[in-house]
Specification:
The structure is a homodimer. By secondary structure, chain A is an alpha/beta fold. Chain A has helices at 42-49, 66-69, 72-81, 96-107, 163-168, 176-180, 195-198, 220-223, 241-246, 252-262, 280-289, and strands at residues 4-10, 24-29, 32-38, 56-60, 88-92, 115-119, 127-130, 134-140, 148-154, 160-161, 185-186, 192-193, 199-200, 207-211, 229-233, 266-270, 293-295, 301-303. In chain A, strands 6-5-4-3-2-1-18 form a 7-stranded mixed sheet. In chain A, strands 7-8-9-14-15-16-17 form a 7-stranded mixed sheet, with helices on one face. A two-stranded antiparallel sheet of chain A has the order 10-13. In chain A, helix 1 (42-49) links the parallel strand 3 (32-38) and strand 4 (56-60).
Chain lengths: 304, 304
């Protein structure tokens, strides 16, 4: 299968610590790199990850708190220094557009490439990006400021042709796409070979959901049914339940409840408050609700 | 003597590397912390240095290239999260003022303290900050955009009183400030004790100059005569002399020539191009021109 994985570049929250960078990650899907949130230090973490700056074509920003987007102007500037020519597409709540515009005027004179800004309506669940193999959906979240998660869904693919059958029936290569598309094969003597005999089923489309930052939203589980990998913020443990609600964040148990109710395959928790020196308390809490949970950490890579 | 030292938080240049952070440092003088340039990752490096965020009252920005100022809005935001109430003073080329204003509106709603912006005229050498014991001067530099270095000069202090003499002549404590200020002491029997007998000379005022980024400016040496510690950019080695001139940067030899011609006590070079994996080539080149040269590195502390 084509690689579809998530590279965690930062999974801390707003206050700086020596354990974490602020929120940023890269979704790698079929050779393309999609950045999701872009906290301060993004260009450094990109360098550390060894991921190619050039392959980043699209950056999705969840909301306009500094720990989720202050690294953006540095990335834009560095792309320019690296001689980028391909357009860069940025998806974010609307007020970031004019801010980026004036930052670029001040800090990135004569940029060698186009920056295309796409405002995201954080109140609706809709497609914000689409290509041949992938759609990215907005996910309305419940935070202090307008905030959207992002749901990456592979499009359905064709079944796999069986090489042994091609050989057995002497099927010409020119017929492969027809068979994959669902046409039966008719042999020169008129015998019809059903296409199901010539193929193995398509890989099931995979999906990844990024949900940071948000209050506990039981309704999210509806939008996330059957998602393979869910990254959900878990800023606090349950001893700070009230604080989580007041600051529009989630506890580890709440993140795990969303994963459980959505029936996701795997949960990764992140956006840890700086108050937790030992994040195992968050992990252990989530594990009691949803067993297949991992802690995010910088440079970790999760397969979707 | 009161501490007067420079903490290097970052000494790389614009392109991200795993060896360096971009330009940023903290000048510690008599209990106050002055930040000089504030590249991306400043709040993280502040945390790493163990320096107190609260004690930073003034930030000086040399010019509006991203690698010298993109960490500023993150610092301002984090000061707010930490509950700061003391005003923060920022000294920088004028166009940063409105940019900061709109960034703060977007990212730092309800800031708990005042940010006072002081535009710096980068074309003149003049006092931009002054307190009881220190003046900070602008230093016009020759870069692609308006750019000012900063010269920190201690004010002259009083001579030190000699405790042994206080005791020998039974001088009351109330007379100490008069004697330090240069008055002779008159004993009850009318004998005059010259103040020079009662004191040891004042510590000589110390000075630190920060010069980044600039083309080689032989005239700088005039402004820097006798400076104790000079930080001068040395982006390239002499094999890139032409590139240095084209990009308005200096070579290590040129930095050392400024130090030599100004008769400074110690030179620290920094703002290294990402092309140099081994910065010893820059150090060795500078050493042939000015022997008391050191390489800057993150978390290094230099006494002035």
């Amino acid at each position: 299968m084509e690689p579809f994985r998530v590279h965690i570049l930062g999974c801390g929250s707003a206050l700086p610590t020596l354990r974490h960078f602020p929120s940023m990650q890269v979704v790698e899907c079929r050779g393309k790199l999609f950045m999701v949130d872009c906290g301060e230090g993004a260009q450094l973490q990109m360098r550390r990850s060894g991921l190619s700056f050039t392959r980043v074509g699209h950056i999705f920003i969840s909301h306009l708190h500094g720990d989720h987007c202050l690294g953006l102007i540095g990335m834009i500037s560095t792309f320019g220094l690296l001689g980028r020519t391909a357009p860069l597409h940025i998806y974010a709540p609307a007020p970031l557009g004019p801010m980026l515009e004036s930052q670029m005027q001040l800090f990135c004179a004569d940029l060698s490439y186009e920056v295309a800004f796409h405002p995201v309506d954080t109140t609706v669940h809709q497609v914000v990006y689409e290509d041949r193999s992938l759609t990215v959906w907005s996910l309305p979240l419940d935070h202090r400021v307008p905030c959207s998660g992002y749901l990456f869904r592979e499009k359905p693919t064709c079944p796999h042709i069986r090489p042994d059958m091609l050989e057995a029936y002497h099927i010409p290569v020119s017929q492969i796409n027809n068979i994959k598309a669902g046409l039966d094969y008719v042999m020169p003597d008129g015998t019809v070979i059903p296409h199901q005999h010539l193929t193995t089923p398509a890989d099931p489309p995979r999906s990844y959901a990024y949900c940071s930052d948000t209050r506990y939203m039981p309704s999210l589980a509806g939008l996330l049914q059957g998602v393979d990998l869910l990254y959900h913020e878990a800023t606090y443990a349950s001893d700070r339940l009230e604080m989580a609600a007041n600051y529009y964040h989630s506890t580890a148990s709440q993140a795990a409840a969303v994963a459980r109710d959505a029936g996701v395959r795997q949960l990764v928790i992140g956006h840890f408050s700086s108050r937790y020196n030992q994040e195992e308390v968050l992990l252990n809490e989530a594990l009691t609700v949803f067993p297949n949970t991992s802690l995010a950490r910088e440079m970790a890579v999760f397969d979707v």
